Amino acid sequence: MHVHTNQPNPNTQFDTVYAAARADANREAAHTRKKLSEFASKLASAMDIGEDAIVGIGSREESQGQANRQNR
């Protein structure tokens, strides 16, 4: 009788890839939450001072455009 002592688990590789994808998604979500929190803080401080909120939003759109150009 022939017995394989180390039978590979077919789900091991899938589990590893899935865990890595979840870790990446969690990091991306944390980064997004941090950016949203920073933006909300800046917006709230601008509202407290009485500044025009459109200025803060406009600068955010410009920074997103720069980031999109860098990604290309």
Instruction: Estimate the strand proportion.
Output: under 5%
Broad shape: elongated
What is the makeup of the main sheet?
Answer: none
Q: Mean of the pLDDT scores? A: 77
State the separation between the terminal residues, measured CA to CA: 59 Å
Question: How would you describe this structure to a colleague?
Answer:
- The protein has a domain at 42-72.
- 81% of the residues lie in helices and 0% in strands.
- The chain contains 2 helices and no strands.
- The chain has helices at residues 11-49, 53-71.
- The protein is elongated, with a radius of gyration of 23 Å.
- The mean pLDDT is 77.
Notable traits:
single chain; mainly alpha; elongated; about 70 residues
Short description:
With 72 residues, the chain is mainly alpha-helical. 81% of the residues lie in helices and 0% in strands.
Question: What's the structural blueprint in terms of helices and strands?
Answer:
Layout: H1 11-49, H2 53-71
